[in-house]
Design a protein that fits this description.
448 residues, alpha/beta, Rossmann fold, Helicase, Ruva Protein, domain 3, 4 domains, five-stranded parallel beta sheet, 19 helices, 13% strand
């Protein structure tokens, strides 16, 4: 145990230091309140023993600062001028013990040993609670799957969850990138903090900037009061940036600064606000290709891509479809549903361009229309039962196609599979309908 001894009387300070060092304690001394405040930050003591009446900063100032830095640290106050009023105030402000001078050494050592034991018990209790929560989260929130490639991704996610490293999750729309991000958060040291998220492709640039970084009153029309951005609001927790590849270059610059400097400047403000959120980003784009095209900053990519996790599409882990179906069917209104054998075969044969999200939606629909506990094939969406549309092959694309060409072809393929229904196509693609319309305009796809 490391103890910080604070007293402006050098003789008392030397005596206490000899006493505690003789008992095997790691001792840090400060002969004034300001020095004690500095030692709290630099030394991170386990216990603080301080005089109350000192010039510059009192023992109560030391108590307040110690509690701000570490709410669990026991602070023992000493004074030669004890009063009921000062004792009550000390206890109300969180002091562990209030000791009147002069005191016996044995009495002081006994008090400090009890404080040390109390701190150790609290630390052990906190560790055990965290372990219990982690195990519960592991069982409850663990993404479903047993395919080898999927298990490799989960194993890496579990390894990095306990760190504060930035994570970039890639994969097609609907593969469960946000589910994986929430799982990482539940296993992290920040699990008690908030998990906040935003879809970067669902908001116009001006609104996205305000949501991310906050704004001050009067900075734009409608800004009637100050508002913290989500990066600040996620302090102590995790902030999930979905569809990071849809972010405009101007917002990318501000996000890069926020990650590098751990602070943001709200819209219309001049002072920076500190940020204490872990960043997890996700994309269904090839960001390296986007860098080549000039639509994504390479420096931001390397800041985000500290740990990369790639989720395979559902068509490459078909053995997980029965497990996923069982999980989705078991999360309904308490009734038990089972799949007929031919229904399961149809699910496994279908390519699921919308991946896990499309499978979940299809099963939700099947439960609603089945009319019984056994789900027959006719309860599935027609597209699942129809012969799959022709897959994109090398002959369908030019040699060395860009990501833009591939994305355009994929959107056309999904639109064709959905009979031109843009709402359903957006759902399968895992993007907001407004994002789909922007892409249709961008790629010059006619309304017809």
């Amino acid at each position: 145990m490391k103890i910080l001894l604070v007293d402006d009387e050098t003789a008392i300070l030397d005596t206490l230091a000899i006493l505690f060092r003789g008992q095997g304690w790691d001792v840090v001394v400060a002969d004034s309140g300001p020095k004690a405040l500095a030692a709290l930050e630099d030394e991170k003591p386990d216990i603080v023993l301080t005089d109350i009446r000192m010039p510059g900063a009192t023992g109560l100032d030391v108590l307040a600062e110690a509690r701000d830095i570490d709410a669990e640290v026991p602070v023992i106050l000493m004074t030669a001028q004890a009063s009921l009023q000062s004792a009550v105030r000390a206890v109300n402000e969180g002091a562990y013990y209030y000791l009147q001078k002069p005191f016996a050494n044995d009495e002081l050592l006994a008090i400090c040993k009890r404080a040390a034991e109390a701190r150790q018990l609290k630390a052990e209790n906190k560790r055990l609670k965290k372990e219990i929560r982690s195990r519960a989260a592991h069982r409850k929130d663990r993404p479903t799957g047993s395919a080898p490639r999927f298990l490799e991704v989960l194993a890496l996610a579990e390894t990095v969850a306990g760190t504060d490293s930035t994570v970039l999750i890639s994969g097609e729309s609907g593969t469960g990138k946000e589910v994986l991000a929430r799982y990482i958060h539940s296993l992290s040291q920040r699990s008690e903090g908030p998990f906040l998220s935003i879809n970067c492709g669902a908001l116009p640039e001006s609104l996205l900037e305000s949501e991310l970084f906050g704004h001050v009153k009067g900075s734009f029309t409608g800004a009637v009061k100050d508002k913290d951005g989500l990066l600040v609001a996620a302090g102590g927790g995790t902030f999930f940036l979905d569809e990071i590849g849809e972010m405009s270059p101007a917002i990318q610059v501000k996000l890069l600064r926020a990650i590098q400097e751990r602070e943001v400047i709200p819209v219309g403000a001049t002072k920076a606000v500190p940020v204490d959120a872990r960043i997890v980003a996700a994309t269904n784009r090839d960001l390296e290709e986007e860098i080549t095209r000039g639509s994504f900053r390479s420096d931001l990519y390397y800041r985000l891509n500290v740990i990369q996790l790639h989720l395979p599409p559902l068509r490459e882990r078909r053995e997980d479809i029965p497990l996923l179906a069982e999980r989705f069917l078991g999360s309904g209104n308490g009734e038990r549903y089972t799949l007929a054998e031919e229904t399961l075969e149809a699910l496994i044969e279908y390519d699921w361009p919308g991946n896990v999200r499309e499978l979940q939606n299809a099963l939700e629909r099947a439960v609603v229309v089945s009319g019984g506990s056994v789900i027959r094939p006719d309860a599935l969406p027609e597209r699942v039962l129809e012969a799959p549309p022709p897959r994109l092959g090398a002959s369908d694309l030019p040699s060395n196609p860009t990501m833009e060409v591939v994305e355009r072809a994929y959107i056309l393929w999904v639109l064709d599979a959905e009979g031109g229904n843009k709402t359903r196509a957006a759902e399968v693609l895992g993007i907001d309908p407004s994002t789909l319309y922007r892409k249709l305009n961008r790629y010059g796809i006619e309304e017809s």
